[in-house]
Write a structure and sequence with these properties.
Layout lengths: L3 H5 E4 L4 E4 L3 H20 L9 H26 L5 H13 L3 H7 L5 H17 L6 H17 L8 H5 L5 H13 L1 H26 L20 H6 L5 H4 L19 H20 L18 H16 L3 H23 L12 H13 L3
Antiparallel strand pairs: 1-2
Helix pairs in contact: 2-3, 2-7, 3-4, 3-5, 3-6, 3-14, 4-14, 4-15, 6-7, 7-10, 15-16
Length: about 375
């Protein structure tokens, strides 16, 4: 039987280093499902080791649950911005036009479905509590941000969204700073709760290894910080985001159309956050994020991208019906393509042997999936 230390780590053949298998955030979100399964296993006098098939099915169920929950939260986020038609199209695009479906069903247990849910919740809470102060708002946002950080430490950058929400000018930035200082007695309890949640990871590491601090990704760095791979991250056949999720190209006009005025302040918060996120991904040594279907890192920001696409479509619907219905048709075709690729996925789809010929052969196979 492996020791508890061996169970926590796995050898990375690429870097030659030993890295952690899990972060505590994902485990905490799976915990309610595990406890229910464990109780049933115990009551029925069955295997309670945690490694039998019912426990594996529980991980799958938790992943599906959080993905579905994130989609339901998107309804609350988009219903004030769009029509029901646009909402349905955008939600289906998020599910079938990205790798979310893959990492919710075929690859359950990865962190992305859980982050997708938490980020959707963060957006909803930020908008619901906009312009309000109080301990309830502070605690809610602190807990969600703490869980997001626990799932993956670099995701602490998502704090930028509530900080910059409804900030559209330098004067507004000064007002936001003054507001935080004025309500410092709410900020401190929130920071304490956030720190308490994040500290659980260090406590767990100490329990398992005897060391409070450790490198989560030893030997792996942001080696391209001065030469970020901006174009490959989006367009390379080595898991480029748009190469496998072309539907999300429709988010681009959202950031350039000045006529979208009602969403102006949200736009700036999204833009700054996405640019920081984009740079961090493009700077990472494995900017393609290893053997994966599409660029799985972008699942974490799908709620933000969904807002951009929905608002753009709503704007388009009031101007040119031909272009509007053409855009909807484009999204449907892209969803069919990505979902087809999901169903013919036979890893790995990266590395030196993965070329344009291999990519287009899979695209043809995805088309044949429907025939």
């Amino acid at each position: 039987m492996p020791t508890k230390t061996q169970e926590l780590f796995v050898f990375n053949e690429v870097t030659g280093k030993t890295t952690p298998k899990y972060t505590l955030g994902t485990a905490l979100m799976q915990l309610p499902f595990f406890l229910v399964c464990h109780a049933f296993q115990y009551a029925l006098n069955r295997d309670t080791s945690g490694y039998s098939l019912p426990y594996l099915k529980t991980i799958w169920l938790s992943s599906v649950f959080y993905s579905f929950g994130g989609l339901m939260l998107l309804y609350s986020i988009l219903r004030a911005r769009t029509s029901i038609t646009i909402y349905m199209v955008v939600v289906l695009t998020v599910l079938f036009g990205s790798s979310l479906f893959m990492y919710s069903t075929y690859r359950p247990g990865w962190s992305h479905a859980y982050t997708f849910f938490l980020v959707s919740l963060l957006v909803l809470l930020t908008e619901r509590y906009a312009g309000k102060t109080g301990i309830k708002k502070t605690m809610a946002l602190s807990i969600v941000l703490g869980l997001i950080t626990l799932v993956r430490f670099p995701k602490v950058l998502f704090v930028l969204f509530p900080l910059l929400y409804q900030v559209g000018s330098v004067a507004a930035i000064r007002e936001r700073v003054q507001s935080l200082l004025h309500n410092i007695y709410y900020v401190f309890p929130g920071a304490f709760v956030f720190g308490l949640l994040v500290s659980l990871q260090f406590i767990y590491w100490y329990y398992v290894t005897g060391h409070v601090g450790m490198a989560a990704y030893p030997g792996e760095t942001f080696m391209y910080w001065n030469n970020p791979k901006f174009i490959p991250v989006l367009f390379s056949i080595q898991n480029g985001f748009f190469a496998y999720a072309p539907a999300f190209l429709l988010v681009i006009p959202y950031f350039f159309l000045r006529e979208i005025g009602s969403d102006f302040r949200t736009k700036w918060a999204l833009l700054i956050l996405l640019l920081v996120f984009y740079y961090s991904i493009a700077s990472w040594w494995a900017w393609w994020f290893g053997g994966a279907f599409g660029h799985r890192a972008f699942i974490d920001v799908l709620p933000f991208l969904a807002i951009g696409i929905a608002v753009f479509l709503q704007w388009l619907s009031g101007r040119n019906q031909y272009v509007y219905w053409g855009a909807l048709g484009y999204l449907v075709l892209c969803c069919l393509l990505t979902f087809g690729l999901t169903n013919v996925y036979d890893p790995p789809w990266d590395g030196p042997e993965w070329n344009r010929g291999e990519y287009w052969e899979r695209v043809a196979r995805a088309v044949r999936f429907y025939l």
